[in-house]
Amino acid sequence: MESNPSSTRDFDVIIVGGGPGGSTLGGLLRKYDPSLNVLIVEREVFPRDHVGESQLPQLGAVLDELGVWDEIERADFPVKVGVTYKWGREGELWDFNLLPPENFDGQERPGKYEGVRKNTAFQVDRARYDEILLRHAQTLGCEVQEGIAVREVEKTGDSIDALILGDGSRVTAKYYVDATGHVGLLRRAMGVAVECPTLLKNIAIWDYWNNTAWADTIGKGGTRVQVMSVGYGWLWFIPISPTRTSLGLICPAKYYKDSGQTPEALYTKAIAASERISGFLEGADRENTLATTNDWSFVAEKLSGPNWFLVGESAGFADPILAAGLTLTQVGAKELAYTILALNQGEHDSEWLKKGYESNQVKRIRHHQRFAEFWYTANSQFTDLQDHCSEIAKEAGLSLSPEKAWAWLAQGGFTNDVLGQVGIGGLDFTALNQVAQRFVDHEIPWQSSGKNVFRLKLDDAEKTFLPSYHDGKVISVECFERAGKRLPVIGLTLVLLRALSKRADIAGIMQDIAAQLKVGVAPAYFETGMKQSMQILEVLVSEGWVEATHNKDLATLSVSTPREGPFIQKNKKIWSSGNRS
Fold this sequence. Notes:
Blueprint: E1 9-16, H1 20-32, E2 38-42, H2 58-66, H3 69-74, E3 79-86, E4 94-97, E5 121-122, H4 126-139, E6 143-146, E7 150-156, E8 159-165, E9 170-178, H5 185-189, E10 194-195, E11 201-210, E12 222-230, E13 233-239, E14 244-252, H6 253-259, H7 263-273, H8 275-280, E15 285-286, E16 291-296, E17 298-300, E18 308-310, E19 316-317, H9 325-344, H10 350-377, H11 386-396, H12 402-410, E20 423-424, E21 427-428, H13 429-437, E22 453-456, E23 462-470, E24 473-482, E25 485-488, H14 491-502, H15 506-520, H16 526-542, E26 546-549, E27 568-570
Parallel strand pairs: 1-2, 1-9, 2-6, 3-12, 9-18
Antiparallel strand pairs: 3-4, 3-5, 4-27, 7-8, 8-9, 10-17, 11-14, 11-15, 11-16, 12-13, 13-14, 17-19, 20-21, 22-26, 23-24, 24-25
């Protein structure tokens, strides 16, 4: 069918792809500027199944801001209270809790985005979840065309001129956005190369099951995801509705190819190898819709052009071991919405806005990739993959001695996920340290422990400004950059830097932090603020922003991480196939 230029329709923003990235972007654009004419083009007709069902707590704030939290909560998706792992140097199970499980007891559903619910996440049936988001974008005023693919991208140089749709219609816009995930339709059309900075080139094989048992029932609708190592990969077990479960296998693409086995054979073999997972399936019904996909970590060489952007997995992908895919996609979509709003309104320098958006996404993706490398190379449960994991470690320049491995990981930049905080994947620094201790032989010491004099080292750092995104506006935040690392002056990091600018002794620093927090935070968060400030101090020492020394005449900071705590602990529940909890 020929296009008809005379019937060209013009929009402010055209988003290709109606998944969570596209619908979140479109919804926020319309929320903050209802005058914008936004088109979402989706080649499929929703609902449709999609893999990638587990979320991180950071995403809850985006759902709340979008105005869709209540509808998502009413869908009765299981609440993710944590994850149970078989991963590390020992074969025992251990739990990562998003909050102490007892804190979720007594939580009524549907619940509001408040209190402990800000620390939990959802496990979603993507067919229903994605449709809720897309319909919500429609209610906010986005025009949605489903079942229509983009047939052709008209371009001049690095700019997009128009899109020709599958029905022959021609559409133009001020801004175009690729939200097509791995397909990367606009990315490919614009000739954007991708970099695969890691040897983590895996495949995913999965199917859905009905009426499985849950390993844990926590409060009302709360549970833990299961991540179980097998000799040549790992299984995910994610309840995504009261009756439906996603069960998949991740293994290296090379292992799959060399094995000569079919995806079905590898899948059933992995399930049989896990007594725990097999037990959950007794009496359950498999849907027999086995699917496969490449799970290759990559990042695009650039995320924007003169009038186009990449968002979500068209921009980059990190191995799913941390379940970060949906969160990275929708947080990135929020930041892109703010960027386009500011561009359209002439606020801030356009290149600064684009660079800030791109820098945030790339740094997050790369650090999640780096953390995944650490997880894989430190997992002795991969009995069939020892050579492969050693190769990954060598490629990454990673030594698995406790101090060197942790320093390598920490220097990747724990300040990239949320500006002003330290952590990754829903884990704060202490929890990360506890996880790492399960991968190595002994306690990993804090570099700040045993020291008592702390001095800022910012003289050779470049002062720049980063975008921060709040209430529909892009805010310029002071930042120091040096050797690829960045130090945003915001949140608790700002509190700590103010204290360090006045005092060098640890006692005085802590007194100043306490005085600031007593004025700036609610009493219930005071203790948490103090603890997190010390975590930030440790990261700043490890990244070289702060010099730590010892003066024998002053009180000394003493800090360590216990092997277990309320968030990271040995799994104590004995599960049997007869338990339908």
